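pls design
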């Protein structure tokens, strides 16, 4: 994965100025304007992969938080806007699947994109049954990752909007 060059173009509407990115690499398709307050969380023990993904996402105007371990992630404050998690399946100490189960049992809904060094059908099936939105095998194409991130951020945004639209009594009522 390599960082893509891009330029900012500013265009002014009647009472509005917007910024969009123009990519020099026509093979990368991504929303023209980064989603406001969105964050991608990356948990992977490979520092080169973390750095590469971080550069790619930042070059597209996407906020990213990088973690070397699940413990580092759990010790951080959750982002306030739409969020998705890019999670390695195999990590020292605790697996990505363990974290997926832990988040589900705590009712912490977070779209998860799993990544793995090589394809493993039983683990892929387990991740998808647990609610993962994508399972990518390393090395993956930048565009496949960006498509999964866009889907994850979109789903989390819709979930957050639905939560805001529900009356507060239904949000706090325990489910039976």
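designed seq:
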């Amino acid at each position: 994965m390599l960082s893509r060059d891009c330029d900012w173009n500013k265009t002014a509407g009647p009472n509005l100025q917007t910024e969009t990115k123009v990519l020099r690499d026509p093979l990368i398709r991504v929303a023209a304007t980064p989603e406001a307050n969105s964050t991608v969380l990356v948990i992977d023990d490979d520092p080169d992969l973390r750095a590469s993904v971080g550069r790619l996402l930042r070059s597209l105007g996407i906020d990213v938080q990088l973690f070397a371990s699940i413990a580092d992630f759990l010790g951080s404050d959750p982002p306030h806007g739409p969020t998705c998690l890019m999670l390695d399946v195999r990590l020292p100490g605790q697996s990505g699947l363990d974290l997926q189960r832990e988040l589900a049992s705590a009712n912490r809904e977070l779209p998860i994109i799993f990544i793995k060094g090589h394809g493993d059908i039983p683990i892929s099936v387990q991740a998808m049954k647990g609610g993962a939105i994508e399972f990518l095998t390393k090395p993956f194409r930048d565009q496949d990752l960006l498509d999964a991130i866009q889907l994850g951020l979109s789903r989390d945004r819709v979930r957050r909007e639905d939560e805001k639209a529900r009356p507060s009594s239904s949000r706090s009522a325990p489910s039976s």
